[in-house]
Amino acid sequence: MYKYNFEQNSQHRIEILELSDxxxxxxxxxxxxxxxxxxxxxxxxVPVMAIHFVDIIExxxxxxxxxxxxxxxxxxxxSYAADSKMYDWEADADSIDDQKTKVxxxxxxxxxxxxxxxxxxxHLEPEFGQVGEMAIRPVRMFSPINxxxxxxxxxxxxxxxxxxxxxxxxxxFGKMHxxxxxxxxxxxxxxxxxxxxxxxxxxLSLFEKQSIRDSCPMNVFAMDANQDLIVNAIEKCVxxxxxxxxAESMKKPRLIKMQHKKNKYIFTVESAGQLKAxxxxxxxxxxxxxxxxxxxxxxxxxxxxxxx
Length: 308
Hints:
The chain is α+β, with helices and mostly antiparallel strands. The chain has two domains: 3-45 and 185-269, RNA polymerase, RBP11-like subunit (Gyrase A, domain 2, 2-Layer Sandwich); 48-181, DNA-directed RNA polymerase, insert domain (RNA Polymerase Alpha Subunit, Chain A, domain 2), CATH 2.170.120. It has helices spanning 32-44, 65-73, 198-201, 206-215, 242-249, 277-307; strands spanning 3-5, 13-19, 23-29, 48-59, 102-110, 117-120, 125-126, 153-157, 162-172, 183-196, 221-223, 229-231, 256-271. A five-stranded antiparallel beta sheet has the order 1-2-3-13-10. α1 packs across α6. The protein starts with a strand and ends with a helix.
């Protein structure tokens, strides 16, 4: 497990419980308002790249121009290099159309065969010749059946149908449009606190202890070396109360006391592929800290003006 303190002597602390490129699960100890702010910033204010303008040069596919442009806009783009790009409103008139603000992809396909041709994100070619894992490109998608890369479906072309478009990917964030949101899921819940009434646990048989352990669908309980019932994974508790119902069936309604742990929350963050889940959390903390600093500076300036 990894622990991160916001700053020395801070009451806020993050502890990583589960980590992969796609998912980050962590506990957060601190104020509820800060927890909710972190979640909202992850959803709405972490910058990534997405296709925003589409030049339709030719389109005889089954999709209308509007539908085709929408599907292209919703393709997630790997955005590790998004920090090197400028927002289009930050750029001057001379740099709006160059690589400082955007990445351009070309899609040009025509079906000359009788069988339908599926057009996917694999057919998007960058005009600026970006290569490598860190390049801004469509997120790779693999078949769950054979593991081969298949791309994200866009449309299908019948015989002699064609599509030719230029796609302009710009930097943005979720408050502007959902296509700039880098996450699929960002939720948090209270961490549970489970306490046993030891006066009643002493009278439990081994079978009853095992029944309570097995009643939990999340495997929160376990048996120790002395065959005593213990809480083994409190972070997995989802307040289903199956353990309490099991204890009630044994005529021991006060055996387990379940309550929310004050100021401790379990976050679950799943990436949509543009960034690693851990990077989303880190960038959200940076954005939130910047906002707090800006408010602090504005308040200090306002106080100085009042003293003048």
